[in-house]
Design brief:
Elements lengths: L1 E5 L5 E7 L2 H4 L5 H13 L60 H17 L3 E4 L9 H10 L7 E5 L4 H7 L6 E4 L5 H6 L2 E5 H12 L8
Parallel strand pairs: 1-3, 3-6, 4-5, 4-6
Antiparallel strand pairs: 1-2
Length: 216
């Protein structure tokens, strides 16, 4: 499919770019998208949560009172989980939240996310641009010209653009990533995806290379 290329003034440049139907025009696989998003969010968790159990709480192990004849319930030591300051029953322990996902499944998820945005008319292609120095106002003017400032835009660049990234850092709900860093979660979270011309080439090249099978 062909898509018009817009300039930073929000006007068409008179040029169009070819988007591969194998990447931007497939039938989205919702389950693959779900698995990729689940993996991304799981990997954001540190898993360092920990509470002390009965055997780890500092305190005497002496029995508080005799077993029978007091007229009250039986008690063990002061580290009893029923007491204030006692150990935690079945408390959280450090663990890994790693979710393994097949490389082909991850590729299918990214394709599905990009295709879903394209079908919903939430994907635009803009010409490459950069700044000499970080200018948040200039970056915001570009978003306003494209009429996407209030739509949680995600700008995907072909190469690392430090000045562009710094210009967007203070704008809420605005994200800038390179084509190599693009993942399914970022695409689905964005209200509109802005692809630079160089990013389209990078994405096309990345999916053109076959996925190498990992030996068992």
């Amino acid at each position: 499919m062909k898509v018009d290329v817009l300039n930073i003034q929000g006007q068409t440049t008179g040029r169009d770019i070819e988007l591969s139907d194998d990447i931007f025009g497939i039938e989205p696989n919702e389950h693959s998208v779900y698995l990729a998003v689940k993996q991304y969010l799981a990997h954001q968790r540190q898993g360092t949560h920990k509470t002390k159990e009965r055997g780890e709480v500092k305190g005497s192990t002496k029995k508080i009172k005799r077993q029978k004849g007091t007229g009250t319930a039986r008690f063990g030591d002061i580290k009893n989980p029923l007491f204030r300051g006692g150990g935690r029953i079945f408390g959280p322990r450090p663990r890994k939240y790693t979710v393994r996902l097949n490389k082909k499944e991850k590729q299918l998820a990214r394709k599905s996310a990009l295709s879903a945005k394209t079908a919903a008319e939430q994907l635009m292609v803009v010409e490459d641009f950069s700044f000499e120095t970080p200018k948040t106002r200039e970056f915001l003017n570009i978003l306003n010209a494209l009429q996407v400032a209030d739509r949680k835009p995600l700008l995907v660049t072909g190469e690392q653009e430090k000045e562009v990234f710094l210009s967007s850092r203070n704008l809420p709900k605005v994200a800038v990533v390179t084509a190599d860093e693009l993942n399914t979660y970022q695409v689905m979270k964005a209200g509109v995806v802005l692809l630079s011309e160089s990013a389209v080439d990078k994405i096309t090249q990345a999916f053109a290379n076959p996925v190498k099978e990992t030996p068992a």
